[in-house]
Sequence to fold (575 residues):
Amino acid sequence: MEDKCVDLPRECWEIVFEHLRSDRYQFLEPVSLVCKSFLSLSNPLLLSLTISTLTVPLLPRLFHRFRCLKTIVIGQLSGDLNVLLSLVARSDLRLQSLDLSNQKSLPVEGLRQLGSRMKSLKSLKCRNFERLCDRDLIKISNSLPWLEELDISYPSFEETMFTEERVTNSGIEEMSGKLRELQKIDVSGNYFISDKSLVALSSNCVFLREIVLHDCCFLTPSGVGFAISNSANLVSVSVKGLGIHSSLIGASLPNIDISFMCAKALSVIEFSRMFISDALLCSIAKAQLPLKKFAISYCQNFTLEGLSSILSAYQFLGELDLSGLDFLTDQCMNNLSRYLSNVTSINLTSCSKLTNSTFFILTKSCSSLTEIKMERTNLGEEDFVVDLVKNTRVSALKLSGNMRMNNSSLCKFAFVCPNLQLLDVSSCDGITGGGIADVLKSCNEVRHLEVEFCGGVKTLGTDSKLYKLGILKAASSGICDEGLAMVAKTCPWLLHLDLGGCSTVSVKGVKKIVRRCKGLREINVKGCRDLDHNFVSWMVSSRRSLRKIILPIGFSPGYKKREFLFRHGCLIHNC
Fold:
């Protein structure tokens, strides 16, 4: 009896497509070409769009096709940003987030038009603006008074700039009086704001939930304490780089102590590059907060006793960042590990005394752990022997910059973490292709591999098929044409390949990648020898899935050639 193909209900296909998007959106592109039904199912799943100069002419069609867009990111543009935002405003999309980061100045007229037509816009990012001042903040608050999230961090700073060309307390005070719905703000890198700004924000923005205060040298503990104690809905506070006169110690301690007692909703505390006292840590421990994430990276003046008080009080922590704490040893981590049973992610970067022993302690004692970050530590050495116990939950290891780590240590790490999906061993001189091969044999779930600046890695060293490896970052590594031939053979579904600075790679090796990696979307050939314009055109025409090619500085295909390649769906970048 002949089998008949029965169409699945639309609801079933929607579940399948949603699963594809949750893995990688690029998997939806080829599926959308199958039929009109699949196209209609995939279009609503694109929620974010990045706009560059080349995409501007296509915007009306893109806006018509992707009606469910929630986020637009404005990239490098050569035209008038106000005109572009006017086009966005007329699209009738229900945008929730707009990212204008890295622009020269605020597009005042464009924002005004957005505000008049797009009441759904709740989040605005103006990070790294070349020019941002108090007048701009007032324009933002007048145009979008319903904003809930605002990022005005790190505007360009020049000593020759006049005060009226910078963000000051006056601008923050007036803006906060109008943005009554504000829930999240990042004012990092605004060097001329002080505690007055924090008082204004916490007094005027009663729904404030998250505040980021990095590198604001005129802020003091009094201002930070006021913001914490007077923001009843505050769930996250991140403070970095308070000046030495503003360290969270000494006479200011009582104010900070009281503030944490008042912060009943605080679930995220991040301190970085400051002087912190044991007394402050003990006061946080006594506050009985619903703490889920705690970071105390590159901070000084506290001891293991103060740190223990925090960890013993909050044994339900999910994320822990202890990077840059020089006093931590393997024995310290052995003592602390009994408090870390619920930690899912730990960062011990630049803890220079920690060895393999700490790694094996964590994988053995922390049953919930999924991510370990131990960059620039003393991995490769071993202070004392720890039993190797497999931890099947660990899926990400970020171990770059460990100069003493060798293949033997790496193989042990792979043995205890058999379900590894992400591995970063960049700048580890002791790692070779043989070590990578052993990892890939033990961990067949690896999807993301970074071996940048690993001169000893010339090949992946395995003939086994690596169907799940989608991202390979091998910039400035020892990989050669022979190694690329092996990658092409074993990684048929490679999506992203970075060969920047690989001087031993030639067109011959790249050609094998392009021919055999059927889903390749991005490739960096900045260091490739024998590169010419005809070869770039061949790459795009031979592998239609390519969407981005990074070429060396000075290697420009020219405007007409770029336009031709863009019509084939591929962007050319020079860096």
About this structure: Residues 1-5, 244-254 have pLDDT under 50 and may be disordered. The two ends are 61 Å apart (CA to CA).
